[in-house]
Amino acid sequence: MGRTGVLLLNLGGPEKLEDVRPFLYNLFSDPEIIRLPSPWLQKPLAWLISTLRSKKSEANYKEIGGGSPLLQITEAQAQALQSQLFSQGKDIQVYVGMRYWHPFTEEAIAKIKEDNIKKLVILPLYPQFSISTSGSSFRIIEEMWKKDPDLQTIEYTLIPSWHKDQGYLSAMVDLIKQELQHFENPDTVHIFFSAHGVPKSYVTEAGDPYQEEIEECTHLIMKTLNTANPHTLAYQSKVGPVEWLKPYTEDALKELGEKNIKNLLVVPISFVSEHIETLQEIDLEYREVAQEAGITNFKRVPALNTHPMFIEALTNLTTEALDKNPLRFDEVTHPKKNMKMYPQEKWEWGLTTAAEVWNGRLAMLGFLGLMVEIISGQGPLHYIGLL
Question: Would you say residue 294 has pLDDT above 60?
């Protein structure tokens, strides 16, 4: 009888500077990141973006040590989860599958087949579901499942999101409480939840539940924290001139500065691992915005990484999923009636999001003007002024 496995899904990131260009190519080759009117444009434009923007992106990775720590942290999470499962007498092998860099999801699936896994829990490391994160990974695995008879013999179940899980909420609250103690008056600190953004059309036209789950998660964290601290929820990593979920993190920070807020604790609510959006975007870029706005005491809650309470939460999510009726791909790819991932619709020609989006923001500065010139034949537009 085959063994049981857990597949942890994440985005991946360049581990060293020479990985940046091929990582960018993989990122922008995905139609869930950039949607174009003609599929044949996808790879040529991905090549163009990765060629033109790799140097600037490399500069940002240099600011955080020369590469993304995401794989190292995810592998540590996998090892901790496997050890916790083993300590409970469960012989369950944990695998890591990245969407845009090694080990790719396809590599993880090949290893799962090689190990004769016959029961599999597919667990994205995104607490909240979005069609651009968990949905994109599910799409790739679903396509593989449809084409491979060997995979069809594996009994699988999905955990599409876990933003309401009490273990996860408790782990977040534990980190918040630890950081609040670093302030002179913890009860007066403004708690600032910064979530990764998505285009507004994902929610209004595609039915993406992401915004609803982020807002619910924020409410539950504050309820579990059980303090009177004021709080704000905003969305970071906006790309391009299209409207994204609001308020934007940069704008919200400026507004708090205008209200004479001095003590701010930032909570990266949609991230469970340190990566470029926490280490570079929040710690460097948004810290500067906050300081310029007059916020003098800016601190950030660390990502969960291998926090014991978080690993325990992942363990419980795994064991509970194995005890429940399996959840299949066709039950999670359309979380709302009007949401359509396959085939792509006209509304989908635009910009989407993913973790490590700092790369995307850089690339889009050149990409947007280029696309207008190619498709409309018009001269360059000053898109930078719109960003």
Answer: yes
